[in-house]
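Reviewers asked in the last cycle whether our approach scales beyond single polypeptides. To address this, we selected a multi-component target totalling 326 residues and predicted its structure end to end. The input consisted of the following lines:
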Amino acid sequence: MRFIESWTPATLVATRDLTPSIREFLIKPENFDGAAYPVGSHINIAVTIDGRPEARSYSLVGEADRTGYRIAVRRAEDSRGGSQYMWSLAPGARLTITLPASLLPIDWARRHYCLIAAGIGITPLIGAAQALARRDADFTLHYAVTSREQAVYLDVLAPLLNERLIVHAGNEGRRLNLDDLFASLPPDALTLLCGPIRMLDAARRAWTGAGRALSDLRYETFGSSGSLPTEGFRVRLADQAIEIEIPRDRSLLDVLNGAGYEVISDCRRGECGVCAIDLVKIDGELDHRDVFFSEQQKHANEKICACVSRARGTITVDILHRPDAL
Ligand code: FES
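The resulting structure, written as structure tokens, was:
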């Protein structure tokens, strides 16, 4: 593993509904000392889905405070079950969580920053906005939502950022135009972005189209959104008469590992590429949900990140499985 995960017992202290579909959870681990954590940090939470133990990542909202770790979870019917588990919890529930870790490093030496969030993707950027505001950095936070009623934490962000906060509410006709935005940024600007996979793909296209270095575009994803609805699909193993069903609430990675076909993994969020396996054939459609492969690689359909990507129909993969190695 790239990160050594240290699991610790914790208690769900309180919940608060931010909108009818977004709930905030305040979680306090045992021996909590309120120590600062890096901007963009997330915690993993052990969840139970259909009786199976799994883990889900959630970004921490805002900078550290003494009350505990704050996350916000959107209840998504089209999810892999983590949000429904979280929403089933009541204050006092016992949890097991990992300590905060960040996959969204910020280069604090830049003079200009741009923060872009869509929907629940605002969560990792609140702490970034607080840190940049404290440094009096030159930045703007663009927050894209379907309607202003869907925007959360405006009570924190609006007084902190004033005109540095721009809410792009779709129902107000104020859509975010990434091409125009990136064209307007100073050359040394660093952009941090968190949103659904389609937005990340569009941002990467617009960013490189603007002649900018991809290393100056940093992004977060949880691998839970794709271009197709989340549904079950089938996977065949090349050179073997085996076909396996991947249910809508389980990943290809978990099902293959559960069936004894070892596929190694690391981030389990579609970011590192460690779980990539070879694609041999697609009878249906592929839904790449990772941010590891480039657009060209995704079009080539030669590999799939088993931790997050999905399909419609049946795919054939080669996991280099040797039956006598089991
Ligand atoms: S484990 Fe990192 S992309 Fe799948």
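Residues 179 and 206 are 5 Å apart (CA to CA). We regard this as preliminary and will revisit it once experimental data from Aim 1 are available.
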